[in-house]
């Protein structure tokens, strides 16, 4: 499976630096975050930059955070769709958001995800962008994503065509799920992105930053990767690692490690 | 639903102190941990003590940690079964254990849970003790419990009679689960214990200790409690909170808070 570098893995690099490192190390894909794209002069400028390095934009991170279903959230998601289209990627990753402030109504928050998709799909689809629902680990259910499993993401995707709403398989978020392999099979045609990083214990104080390089933790990548492949996914595998000590490392060093681990655990570049 | 105090909530109290506080505050059930029972002179002495206060022992915490399937682990679980029987409770809570040291083989660890149940059920059943599988939050999958959902616990329970293998519903571990209500319905006849505490964000550095008093966090208790009741559960609700700052509080104060929150969120004592 070909390798893509998610820019969150090299947080202190600019888009130009990340792209240059990719080219230097034989990485053919890149998954930028919106803030990095903005700093690079916006989506059109970013695309020219990335085209110059021959990089495929595998996804844009991220839209979502629309469980409150506010007009602002929906408008921001339409902008994210436009940016994805301008970047030349068909996949906009969505982290759906947690409980509304002060609310304990999980079913209502989840219903708002379905409503937001209904609102956004026609617009995204018109621009050739697929909305890619990313289930987050259940430990983020209260504050970041009320969609916690691949099965739940697929239930939300089901009313829409496979080119309209997809799902993200991120090993960190789904590796524990007893239903994982069945749901990956079910996801055939809807896998927007396959993201990897490892589950390391103990988690640090900030749970968001507890992810490890592939191979440093407890996840068995081979069977998950094979299941994603068997489901017909032919895209890149995107390495997305949130980890303060990796962020503090020289990005060139990090990219080298990412490539080494990819070759060991995931196959050729 | 009647209230039971799990001794982990008042970690610095002895069993006698905890029992006395229960009696004083109108709490009719208690769920002791094995270490507390041992310190109280063993299960038979503990039972005399608790009988003296008129307390029902709602469960014993805990057996399990048998994903390595060692002879020692199985022997220790047989001792836990004997202690449950001596305490006069039919419910032995099992935290099944994480991945074996150095292993990434989650299916193998899960298969060992099924094998361990097969080994233990005849012995437990002979002593009138039900093995109560507790699914733990997926964030504990690597290191504490490879059983992460109520559905998965019920799949493991299914080969056995409802009086032989049950499940624990602990709000902290299962509140996020999109399948929760369906699985509680499915659990009818097998609910060994209903435990409560709240999900508070941000979690502290030690994830084990991040639980809050009922009402302090994001969990909506009423619908879960109602579902447990609808599933035919007639036992106590056991308050089990792991939280350093609660542990540092005077146990009498903690018990008072537990009672107040119970009356507000869960009903009469």
Automatic annotation (TrEMBL), chains A, B:
<protein>
    <submittedName>
        <fullName>3-dehydroshikimate dehydratase</fullName>
    </submittedName>
</protein>
<dbReference type="InterPro" id="IPR050312">
    <property type="entry name" value="IolE/XylAMocC-like"/>
</dbReference>
<dbReference type="InterPro" id="IPR036237">
    <property type="entry name" value="Xyl_isomerase-like_sf"/>
</dbReference>
<dbReference type="InterPro" id="IPR013022">
    <property type="entry name" value="Xyl_isomerase-like_TIM-brl"/>
</dbReference>
<dbReference type="Pfam" id="PF01261">
    <property type="entry name" value="AP_endonuc_2"/>
</dbReference>
<feature type="domain" description="Xylose isomerase-like TIM barrel">
    <location>
        <begin position="21"/>
        <end position="253"/>
    </location>
</feature>
């Amino acid at each position: 499976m070909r390798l893509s570098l998610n820019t969150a893995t090299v947080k202190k690099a600019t888009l130009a630096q990340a792209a240059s490192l990719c080219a230097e190390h034989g990485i053919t894909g890149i998954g930028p975050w919106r803030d990095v794209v903005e700093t690079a002069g916006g989506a059109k400028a970013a695309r020219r930059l990335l085209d110059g390095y021959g990089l495929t934009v595998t996804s844009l991170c991220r839209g979502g955070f629309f469980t409150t279903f506010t007009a602002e959230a929906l408008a921001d998601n339409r902008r994210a769709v436009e940016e994805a289209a301008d970047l030349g990627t068909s996949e906009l990753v969505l982290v759906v958001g947690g409980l509304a402030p002060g609310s304990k109504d999980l079913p209502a928050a989840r219903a708002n995800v379905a409503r937001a998709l209904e609102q956004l799909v026609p617009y995204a689809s018109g621009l050739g962008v697929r909305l890619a629902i990313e289930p987050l680990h259940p430990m983020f259910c209260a504050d970041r994503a009320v969609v916690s499993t691949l099965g739940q993401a697929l239930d939300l995707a089901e009313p829409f065509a496979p080119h309209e709403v997809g799902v993200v398989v991120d090993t960190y978020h789904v590796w524990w799920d007893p239903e994982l392999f069945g749901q990956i099979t079910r996801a055939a045609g809807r896998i927007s992105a396959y993201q990897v990083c490892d589950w390391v214990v103990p988690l640090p104080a900030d749970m968001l930053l507890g992810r490890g390089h592939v191979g440093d933790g407890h996840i068995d990548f081979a069977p998950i990767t094979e299941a994603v492949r068997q489901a017909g996914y032919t895209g890149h595998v995107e390495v997305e690692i949130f980890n303060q000590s990796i962020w503090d490392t020289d990005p060139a060093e990090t990219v080298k490690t990412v490539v080494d681990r990819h070759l060991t655990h995931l196959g050729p570049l």
